[in-house]
Design goal:
By secondary structure, this protein is mostly helical. It is about 65% helix and about 5% strand. The N and C termini lie far apart (about 40 Å).
């Protein structure tokens, strides 16, 4: 689905970044070293960096949508912020993209939630697909120190599913994800 490019501005992106920073304040995730906790906003920034790199490699990519969805991609899933609030602040395209990137908690089963989310992402513009690819790339840098091999194997399988379903969304990010999946195997015992 191709869209007319919307100009993006640093000021508009700052509004999204400030909101994400406030909403994710105090959230942390486990780092690769025992006992290490990393501020969640670090993950958000990493996804944004991947999208900036993809924009440089992908002519015609809608920067406004991709960058805003990257900054806000976990707001609905991990904070009390609502779709209606996102829609009012950033418009329908961004709110719809973030909602597609959000797992439906009414669905039972981790894999069923992922399959549903991927189906909804595939109904969005390719920029939203790119954010999901970028999100998983960032999650494959190093597993949390407390993950065992079973969890790592499951995460690789899930990453392969994401790649299979969304690789047509952005060739550059698809190749990066394929590489990260292979590199992640070094963490297996």
């Amino acid at each position: 689905m191709q869209m007319n490019p919307t100009p993006w501005s640093v000021d508009a992106l700052q509004d999204a970044w400030q909101l994400a920073t406030r909403l994710h304040d105090g959230q942390e995730y486990g780092g690769p070293n025992e006992g290490e906790q990393i501020e969640y906003i670090n993950h958000i920034g990493s996804v944004v960096f991947e999208i900036f790199a993809a924009l440089a490699q992908t002519p015609g990519m809608e920067a406004h949508l991709a960058l805003h969805c990257a900054v806000l991609h976990d707001v609905l899933e991990d904070t009390p912020h609502t779709y209606a609030q996102l829609h009012a602040q950033f418009g329908q395209a961004i709110a719809d993209g973030v909602q597609a990137l959000t797992k439906d908690e009414s669905i039972v089963g981790k894999s069923e939630k992922m399959i549903d989310s991927l189906a909804r992402i595939r109904q969005q513009p390719h920029e939203v697909w790119a954010v999901k690819l970028a999100d998983r790339i960032c999650n494959l840098y190093a597993p949390p120190f407390y993950w065992g091999d079973d969890r790592k194997h499951a995460y690789i399988a899930e990453a392969q599913l994401i790649l299979q379903e969304l690789q047509a969304g952005n060739a550059y990010l698809a190749q990066r994800l394929a590489t990260k999946i292979e590199e992640y195997r070094r963490f297996l015992g």
